[in-house]
Structure prediction request, 424 residues.
Amino acid sequence: MEVPILKQGEFLIATIQAALSDADLEHLRLALVQRVVRFRSRAVIVDVTAMDVMDSFASRTLREIALMIRLRGAETVIVGIQPEVAFAMVQLGLTLEGVGTALDLEEGLAYLNQKFKTIN
Amino acid sequence: MANRQNPPRKPLERELGQPEIPRNEAPPELLRELVAHLRQNRTQLREEWLRRIAETRLLTAMTKEEIFAEATSVYDSYVEALETGTFEALQAYARNLSERIIPRGVETHEVIGIVLLLRDVLARSLFAKYQADFEKLNRILDAYEPAANRIANTVAVGFVQERERVIRQQQEAIRELSTPVLQVRERLLILPIIGVIDPQRARQLTEQLLRGIRTNRAKVVVIDITGVAAMDVTVANHLVQTVEASRLLGATVIVTGLSPEIAQTLVTIGVDLGKMNTVGDLQGGIEQAEKLLGYKVVPVSETR
Prediction:
C-alpha cells in the first residue's frame, strides 16, 4: 500500500492511512528523501494517526527518514502518534530521539510555520 | 498408573489412616469434661489470663475495662468453639473484634499473643487438674490441643484478613483520589503528583496524562513532584518514560519541585535526566511554560 505524498506550499505531507509492511516503509523513505529536494521543500510532515501499532522497524525507519531529510536540508515532524502507541513505544525504548513531534497535522503545520517565521 | 489400579493399596491406606481417626476426633465425654472444667473455673482462669496479658504488656492501646470485656467474650467464644467444634461463630467474632480493635492500633502480634496466652493458661489448668492421672491428662490434651490450635489459627487468620481488607480499602481510596490532570491555561496542563509512586500508579499516571494531552490539545505539561517524598531507579525511569511519551505527542514536559534529597538520589544512581526540563518550583515551571506558549503575564497597573 503506497503512502500518498502531498505537496502543500513549502511542505510535503505524507499521510499513512493503514498498517504498512516493511517494504512500504522503505518505499516511503526513498520517496520522501527524493522528493524533498525535487520540490525544494523546507519540511516534511509524516502523519501516523492511522497507525495503531508502531514496531521497532517502523520506529527506526521514521527516525532514519528524519535524519536523512535533515541531511537533505529540510526538517521532519511526526504527527498524530496515539497515546497508547506513545506509551508502548517508550516502554520498548523507541523514543524517536532527535525527531520533531506534534499532536496532529494542524499542530505540526503551526509548529513549522512558527519555526520558519522566526528564522526568516 | 499401576498403583492406582492396584487393589491391595486401599486396605493399606485404611490401615495407615485408622490410628489417626481417634486422635483427631476427640471422644465426646472427654470434651464435655474439658468444657465443664473450663466453665466451672471461668472466673479464676479469666483472671489468670488477664493477669498474664497485663504482665506481658499486650493490648496497651486498650483500657483495663475494655480488655476485661473483650477477654470475657473471647473466653466464652473460645469455650463454645471447643464445645461445639464449629468455628463459624468464632470466626465471625474474630472478624468483628478485629474491625473494632484495628483502628485502635492493636498489632497482629498482640492478638495472636493473647490467644496463645489463653491457650497456655487453659493448658496449665489442665495440667494442674490431672497431674495425678498422667494417662487421662494425655487424652484430655489430645482432645484439647487440636481444637485450641485451630482456634488460635482461626483468630489469627481472621485478624490478618481484616487487616488486609483495611489495607486494600485504603489503597483503593488512595488510588481514587490519585492524580488529577488540570488545565491551567489553554494548552497548558498541570499534573501534581503526591505520595508514593509505584509502577502501577506510574502507568496509570502516564496513561491519564497522555489522554489529557490529547483531549486538551496541550503543548506544555508541568509535572510537579513536590509531594513525592522519595524516588528510586524504577520511579525515575517511569518519569523519564512519561516525559518521552508526552514528547511523542508533541508536548513539552517541565518537571518541578525536585527536592534536594531526590536530586541527590537521582544523581547518585545516575538516571539520565538530560531529556528532562526541570525547574525549581511550580511557580517557576508555570512561568517557563507560559513563556514557551508565548504568554506574558503583566500586572494590570502596567498595561495602562
Q: What stands out?
A: The interface with chain A takes residues 206-207, 210-211, 213-214, 217, 219, 241-242, 244-251 of chain B (CB under 8 Å). The two ends of chain B are 97 Å apart (CA to CA). Confidence is low (pLDDT under 50) at residues 1-24 of chain B. The longest strand of chain B covers residues 220-227.
